Amino acid sequence: MMATRAHPQNTDSSPLSEDTAALRFCSDFVWGVAASAAQTESRNGRGPSNWDALCNDRGAMLDGSTNALCTQFEDLYPRDLELLAQAGVQAFRFSIAWPRVQPDGPGPANAAGLAVYDRMVDAMLEKGITPWPTLFYWDVPAWAGDFRQREICQRLADYAEIVARKLGDRVQQWIVLNEPNSVALRGYAAQVHAPAFNSAEAAYAAIHHQNLAQGLAFQALRATLPGGHRIGTTVNLQPVRAETNSAQDEQAARMVDALWNRAFVDPLYGKGYPRLAAGLIAPYVAEGDMELIAVKPDFLGMNYYSRIYVRQAADHVLGIAQGQAPRHLANTDYFHVEPDGLTEMLLRLHDEYDAPQLYITETGFAMPDPQPRDGVVDDLGRIAHLAGYLKAAQAAHAQGVHLKGLFYWSATDNWEWAQGFAKRFGLIQVDRATLARTPKRSLGYFADCIRHNAALDAPQT
Ligand code: IFM
Asked: In angstroms, how far is CA 151 from the centroid of its own chain?
């Protein structure tokens, strides 16, 4: 077991211009990076998962890839940690693969699987990087079923307890779920993600059963972990806009806000399901569920990339489809660029949920990066977007939001689910053929921001 080394934390006192000093974050701000097991680890040594099944069914993802190897993080993480530690990164939000811990069925863990995370956590601590594991990041073991059924809730909580028993002596920051809204709506209604269902009822069940699984997992973690821990969760929160100002599109936008944002955050804080969604979800709610779900987390994680634009669409299972974003917005390879939406959502969370401690647990940019030159990938475009988002985060901090940290998505390029390897978000490039890691210039910019604890201007050249 490793002792935690103190961070080189936010102590830089080098002179900043008056303007830049105004762009500082709070003194205990956490600068981190994020990743997930299902997007970085290979299939070796773990049991089959829901995403393996989707790859097998479809033959491959859009770019012809599968998740068989990803970036082989479970073996190659020392190189990633080395580069991140050199940049001064203070925290790593990674995830534990449930199919590695319980590959074949319920009951005791697979010792070799759990040992992988034991080593990973020790390696992070040794480098002065605080581990922030996410327990459920979309990979469900094949034996555990799916979120249409209530049985999966206790299974997920049992798995969470196993991990807490093993790592709780060194891990203090825990994230229970990642983006349950993406899972429910993209996986159960839109057929984009595993398990690729196309049913409104399946999506409503998946909303409630993930919330309930989370409530049970919080209960198990709180009973198991030694003192000093903090337990939070993460939702992909996005302000919603109607594509047009027609009454139908405006109604679609209210519905998406209810199903995408509020159905996951309101019940956490004891507000129950939002009015527009409550009747749809009610068939899955049993007595006592809402009390279990109202865990009031120690912090709330928000993943933010952009706003959502929607329109009414009678031919879609939920009666709603993705709308056109305004044409003036800049685009990355995947999402459009809307830093002001980040400020908007942070202010809303602060106002509506009694000023919780907030972390931006993901934000990042998929860009068509050039080949490395002289050992570096020159990604000025990513830096410009990141600078804009950091300033937007700082604007919320300046208005009193308790913003306590930011995790860039992602540490390295990785496997972007249904998009395969085509979307590259990393601060570190991964060569697909050799898996060699090369730092990008954005890692250097991020390092400068960490050193100054501020949202710095992007370099011009
Ligand atoms: O890669 C994903 C991640 O798995 C969940 N949040 C959004 C990221 C970028 O699309």
From this structure: 25
pTM of the model: 0.96
**What is the homologous superfamily of the domain 18-452 according to CATH?**
Glycosidases (3.20.20.80)
- Per 3-state DSSP, what percentage of the chain is helix, strand, and coil (rounded to 5)? 40, 15, 45
Calculate how far, in angstroms, residue 134's C-alpha sits from the geometric centre of ligand 1.
13
Which residue lies with its CA nearest to atom 1 of ligand 1?
416
Domain boundaries, given as residue ranges, for the chain? 18-452
User: How far does residue 310's CA lie from ligand 1's centre (Å)?
Assistant: 20
Which of 416, 419, 423 has the most ligand 1 atoms within 8 A of CB, as the residue to mutate? 416
**How many residues comprise the chain?**
461
Q: Catalytic residue at 126?
A: no
Q: For residue 318, which of 238, 263, 267, 272 has the smallest C-alpha distance?
A: 263
pLDDT of residue 105: 98
Residue closest by Cα to atom 3 of ligand 1: 416
Does residue 239 have a cis peptide bond before it, meaning omega lies within 30 degrees of 0?
Answer: no
Taking alpha carbons only, the member of 318, 294, 307 closest to residue 204 is: 318
Which of helix, strand or coil describes residue 146? coil
Q: Chain-wide mean pLDDT for the chain?
A: 95
Which of 93, 303, 412, 423, when mutated, tests ligand 1's pocket best, judged by the most ligand atoms within 8 Å of its CB?
A: 303
pLDDT value of position 18:
61
| Percentage above 70 pLDDT, the chain | 95
Res. 19: pLDDT tops 90: no
Distance CA 425, CA 336 (A): 14
Give the CA angle between residues 132, 350, 88 to the nearest 5°. Answer: 35
pLDDT of residue 417: 97
Q: Which atom of ligand 1 lies at the shortest distance from residue 335's CA?
A: 10
Active site residue 362: yes
